[in-house]
């Protein structure tokens, strides 16, 4: 298991460890089903085993880690069934979050500027696949950032993080269509304030990725 870069100025030791393990899972540094050893990670990251075990428990509650009696913790496995569940939920929730975000940000130029900036960052050259995925995540979240329902936004953020695991293990390699073009269409709709078009593009984009995951199973 390779070490990952620590987030800048972590809020707490537990939050720091949490961020490290999430990133390791999303980057594929630890593979689905791989056993996690608290002592080994603690030594690698220069912390005690206590915050690592706490992170195992926290991520288990979010479906990232599986903890089994007498067998310890391991990275949650991936399955096509899980992918379908995640993307079916995203198809229901992401469009609502996007629509209400655009409505709330309609008269605020800073909202559009944030989405444009995030799209530019996503289109830039990236050193690693993981860096691209982080920029991709930031673009989608920027578009939904003005959603007034904080609980909904938290839910779609968690679903987005889960769906990125499928990209890391290869969904992007057989994705049909033109994802970059779809992102551009989404950006153009946000800039134009066309909520109906933006929602339609987002749904098409999510269905395309879901179809790719199912086809590659």
Describe the structure.
Helix content is 67%, strand content 5%. A hairpin with a 3-residue loop joins strand 2 and strand 3. Helix 4 runs antiparallel to helix 9. The chain starts with 12 loop residues before the first helix and ends with a helix. The chain is mostly helical. Mean pLDDT is 87; it is low at 1-10.
In short:
By secondary structure, the chain is mainly α.
Keyword list:
single chain; 217 residues; mainly alpha; 67% helix; globular
Structural topology:
Blueprint lengths: L12 H15 L7 E2 L1 H8 L3 H13 L3 E4 L3 E4 L4 H25 L4 H15 L5 H16 L5 H19 L10 H14 L2 H21 L2
Antiparallel strand pairs: 1-3, 2-3
**Beta-strand percent range:** under 5%
Structural class: mainly alpha
The number of distinct helices, counting runs of at least 4 residues, comes to: 9
β-strand number:
3
DSSP helix fraction: 55-70%
For the biggest β-sheet, the strand order reads: 1-3-2
Separation, N- and C-terminal Cα atoms: 26 Å
> Overall mean pLDDT score?
87
Taking pLDDT < 50 over at least 5 consecutive residues as the criterion, the unreliable ranges are 1-10
What's the helix-strand series? HEHHEEHHHHHH
**Biggest beta sheet summary:** 3 strands, antiparallel
C-alpha geometry = globular
The whole-angstrom Rg is: 18 Å
């Amino acid at each position: 298991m390779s070490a990952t870069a620590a987030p800048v100025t972590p809020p707490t030791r537990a939050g720091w460890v949490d961020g490290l393990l999430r990133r390791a899972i999303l980057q594929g540094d630890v593979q689905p089903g791989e056993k996690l050893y608290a002592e080994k990670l603690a030594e690698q990251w220069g912390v005690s085993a206590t915050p690592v075990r706490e992170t195992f428990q926290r991520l288990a509650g979010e479906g990232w880690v599986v903890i089994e009696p007498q067998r310890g913790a391991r990275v949650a496995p991936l399955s096509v069934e899980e992918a379908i569940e995640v993307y079916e939920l995203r198809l229901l929730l992401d469009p609502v979050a996007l629509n209400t975000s655009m409505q709330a940000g309609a008269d605020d130029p800073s909202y559009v500027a944030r989405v444009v900036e995030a799209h530019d960052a996503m289109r830039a050259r990236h050193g690693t696949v993981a860096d691209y995925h982080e920029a991709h995540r930031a673009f989608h979240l920027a578009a939904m950032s003005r959603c007034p329902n904080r609980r909904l936004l938290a839910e779609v953020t968690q679903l987005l993080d889960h769906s990125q695991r499928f990209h890391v293990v290869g969904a992007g390699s057989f994705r049909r269509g033109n994802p970059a073009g779809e992102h551009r269409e989404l950006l153009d709709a946000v800039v134009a304030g066309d909520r109906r078009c933006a929602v339609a593009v987002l749904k098409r984009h999510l269905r395309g990725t879901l179809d790719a995951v199912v086809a590659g199973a």
